[in-house]
Design goal:
The protein is mainly beta. The chain is 0% helix and 21% strand. The model has no long low-confidence stretch (mean pLDDT 88).
Amino acid sequence: LQHAKTYQVSFAVTNPSTQQDAPLISIEASGTATFARVAVVAPDTNIAGVEQGANALNVIVPGFNMHLIGQASFFAGARNLISVTLKSNVDLPNANGELMSLCCFDNAESSNI
């Protein structure tokens, strides 16, 4: 390693299947040269709408933190407007024109949905 030259090391890991906050990470060296343990500075920047999403090992399980459904009419035989309100805990990119589908409206005529 050369003095005053920046080196970057990366490695692949698999995130856990459950949510976790980014842990404190430190680095130290021993061998030909010894460097005392020091804390590594996290970027504290957002990614995909997740606060501090760029911090190493900050893991979030994507989901909806608001999911509401309501209707405009409860009268038998009347046309009805169903309203669904969703709020995601992450940005949901619209890559390749993909759409979100809502399903499973039991006892509703499919021609009216």
